[in-house]
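Cont'd.
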Amino acid sequence: MRLHYAFSDMPDIDLDEYDSTFNAAAGVAAWIFPGLGHIVRGERRRGRLIMMGMLFLVLTGLLVGGVDCVDRKRDRLWFLAQSVCGPIAFAADAVNQYYVQQLPEPQRFNSIALNKPNEMGTLFVALAGLMNLVVILDAMFTARRSEFIDRRGTAPSAEIKGPGGAGEPGGPTA
Amino acid sequence: MLAWIPFIEPLNIFHQWWYLLLLPLSVGISVVYKGVRMRDLQGFWRETTIMTVQIVLAMIALAIGVTLLVQVIIPWLPAE
C-alpha cells in the first residue's frame, strides 16, 4: 500500500516498509486512564503530557458543570463521546446517578447545572473523550508517528531518500 | 459562592462569562493534540501556545464573520 501526497511534491511512501506494530494492551491502558497507554509503551514524557491535558479538560468540565454534566440516562448521546475518557466518565456518572440524583429536591436543584455551565461542562468532557479516542489509536499504533511525515511535511525516516530525509535539513536529528 | 461544593455543584459564574472558557478548552485540546502529534516533543510548550492562540484567534474571526453576516449582510438582502 502506498501513501500518495496529492497536494505536495513529496515522494510516495510505501506503508508496507514501516513497522506498524499493534499494541492492544496500550490501547486498553489508554482507555483505562488517559496517557497510560503511552507510558506502557515506554513514552513516559508523552504519556504524562497527554495525561495532564486530558485530566485538565475533564476536571475543568466537571468543575464548571458539576458531575451532572455526565449523565448516561438523560444525555445518552453526549455520554457516548464522554465514555471514551474511560472509568473517569463512568465514575462521574455513578456519582451523579447514585448521589446527586438521590439528593432531596432543594439540594438537588443546587447541584444540577443549567444553561451555559451545563453546556460547557458537557462539552469539555465530551471533547476530552473524543481526544482520548485519538490518544487510544495513537497508543495502539505509535510506531507510525515516528516514521511518518512530521508537521513540516518533511520525510524524517532514514529509509526515505530526498528532501528532508535523514541527515538533511528538516530531517531527523537522532 | 461560600457554600459551593466543587464537582457536585456547577460553577454558576459562567452563566455570564461562559465564552472565557474557550481559553482552557483550547489549552487542553492543544496539549493533548501536540502530545500525540509531535515527533520528539522538543519545544512542546511553544507549539502548544501557538496552537492555543491560533484556536482563539480563529474563533474570534469566526465570531466577527458570523456577526457581520447576521447584523450587516442579511439585513441588506431584499425581504422577498
